[in-house]
Amino acid sequence: MNKYRHYYSFNRVLLLILDITLITFAFKISNLFRYGSLDFDYQYSVFFVLFALVWWIVSGFSNFIFRIDGLFSCEKKLANLINSFILHAFILASCIVVFNLEQLSRLLLLYTYISTALLITISRLLMQQLFGYFTKSDVAHTRYVIVGAGQAGMSLYQTLNNNENLGTKFMGFFEDNPDTLNPYYSQVQGGIADLKDYCLQHSIDEVYYTLPLTDREQLDDLSQFADDNFVYFRIVPDFSAIVQRDVNMYFYHNVPMLSIRKEPLELASNRVVKRAFDVAFSLAVSLLIFPWLMPLIALAIKIESNGPVFFKQLRPGKKNRLFVCYKFRTMHVNNNTELQATKNDPRITRVGRFLRKTNLDELPQFFNVLLGDMSVVGPRPNLVSQLDHYSKVISKYKMRHFVTPGITGYAQVSGYRGETKELRLMEKRIEYDVQYMENWSFMMDMKIIFLTVWNMIKGEKNAY
């Protein structure tokens, strides 16, 4: 297991705890101002739970307000915070109607929202300052290097280094035959041939490429290395004469930047929308379908064969972080769990064959969605053995692990489901997974969910 890189985001958890604490304090103060007491009545207690839950959905799974890679200004972060409160208010208003809380004091609601907004905004500004100090420490969260110590590289370094709110740490330049008269010559860590080993040894998060775009082989090689090792690769040359339509261009202050791929889910607003839908959809399935369907499936599994109702297996998720994936058990208990199911597989029970045909064996994975390990839609999590094998023979295989795996995916609804006896079948799956990553939209998720349900109704020949 040690050969897989595990990424943990403690900032997100600590920030959520801080927000809930501030919301609690805001509720207490608001109730004291309105009614002269710190004790909540029943309706206000229900409102508190809804308020905190909706805030968790809206912002608890997003770090965009504290982007420490330096791509968003402080003004942009504050604008995103305002957008979060607007989205929060919209969802909360709907919850108030659904749970019949209209009799809450309007003045109390006003006090609550104003105090919550002030406390969270002030906490964000203080955290912003802390990240400024954090930038200067030796344990900065985001470590970056610059390829090229010429004019473009020096200009980028000066821009990034002069901003105290980035939460990043500059680790050095990489340049073949650097100019000894360069004022930053002492910060050159080696030639470009030394870059890969340095990135792995020092856990580099971002590589900025500032050399002319004349060495296509070098660009492809570094880009592939970055994809395989979860390093963000950004091109920052003078590209005014070479911009293409399929390249993402943006500016940080006056420094132009290119992104090799379209990455819609890198934008925090898109991640918020996707996570909010995941939680809402999974809760609906858990509350409306599980209570009556799960006992029936569990009983059928138990009647036909001995063994547990649920099957648990480690699967590689986002950035290869292993997680426990849940399914209904569809096979007789055996020791070949890393062996992919085949047509007429003797391990599969009769009940299991029906569950697989209708996708009902995947239902417990909605718990994985609520835990944050999976999404409703995304690349399907493959076996660990498949990760070991296919990452060596398919160049873009690891790219699919840039995003959270899903219960259903674009490849599955496009006909690439089931056994992958031939390499080309897995290559097509990866092709569709990458297309999904680069073209994600909320409506695309809705389309995939609709096609999944439709395939469940009509049946799939490759589902076994």
Automatic annotation (TrEMBL):
Keywords: Membrane, Transferase, Transmembrane, Transmembrane helix. Coiled coil: none annotated. It is found in: Membrane. The chain crosses the membrane at residues 12-30, 42-66, 78-101, 107-127, 279-301. Its EC number is 2.7.8.31. GO terms for molecular function: undecaprenyl-phosphate glucose phosphotransferase activity. One of its GO terms (cellular component) is membrane. This is Undecaprenyl-phosphate glucose phosphotransferase.
